[in-house]
TrEMBL record:
It comes from the Eukaryota. This is HAD superfamily (Subfamily IIIA) phosphatase. It comes from Sphaeroforma arctica JP610. SUPFAM superfamilies: HAD-like. One of its GO terms (molecular function) is phosphatidylglycerophosphatase activity.
Length: 227
């Protein structure tokens, strides 16, 4: 029920706090994946969607899609096709997952590919391209969806992906450290970085977080969730 120490993420977190705040600012924020307009996302040129797992599509450490967000998940599979939907987790498929047993189990249960990156986000961009094997796809043509700013959003932005930030939907089984860090990220860090963006770094920072090829002219979010 726990994840091992992620030194790279901690070092990068300091870099984000003091230098590259834009890395932790998502392009799009939604309550959960039912609010993403997948048809518009595809129309905008997105070729595949990569998801974080825990607290984004499943309850922490569970194997099935949360019933609450299932309408959004099903819509994503329908629009993009299973072969273009991936899961990139810091548990299954990561360095914590011996012989990728959990990842293989989830491949079968969820019917989509869990990326076997053997590391921890924010590393692993190459593994995503490999998992999409031979499609000549670029990271800029992908969307990354996750609930954590310092892992998921930073990971997506580092790779040049469109980043979609979701709110956690279950804190019940999450570990205490993850819970506290996430609360700090959402309640303090993101509002502060957004304030910086509007008040201190209008030029360069704005440009980096507000422009992305997949954002052009598309209404990527819904006002009502899919049911
Ligand atoms: Mg998560």
């Amino acid at each position: 029920m726990s994840q091992s120490w992620n030194g790279t993420a901690v070092r990068l977190a300091f870099d984000v706090m003091f230098k590259r705040q834009w890395l932790a600012i998502p392009h799009v924020t939604v309550t959960d994946i039912r609010y993403i307009n997948f048809c518009e996302l595809k129309k905008a040129g997105c070729r595949a969607v990569v998801y974080d797992k825990d607290n984004c599509i499943t309850n922490p450490y569970e194997d099935h899609i949360s019933l609450r967000v299932k309408p959004g998940w099903d819509e994503c599979l329908r629009v993009f096709g299973r072969e273009n939907v991936l899961i990139m987790s810091n548990s299954a498929g990561s360095s914590d997952d011996k012989d990728f047993e959990k990842a293989r189990h989830l491949d079968n249960v969820l019917g989509v590919q869990v990326v076997k990156h053997g590391g921890k986000k924010p590393g692993g961009h190459d593994a995503i391209l490999q998992a999409l094997g031979g499609k000549d796809v670029k990271l800029e043509e992908l969307a990354f969806v996750g609930d954590r700013l310092l892992t998921d959003v930073v990971f997506g932005n580092l790779g040049g992906m469109l980043t979609i930030h979701t709110q956690p939907f279950s804190l019940k089984r999450d570990n205490r450290v993850a819970k506290s860090v996430r609360t700090m990220e959402n309640a303090l860090m993101l509002p502060f970085f957004r304030w910086l963006r509007h008040n201190r770094y209008r030029g360069a920072l704005n440009e980096r977080v507000q422009t992305h090829p997949l954002l052009s002219g598309a209404g990527l979010t819904r006002t009502e969730p899919l049911e």
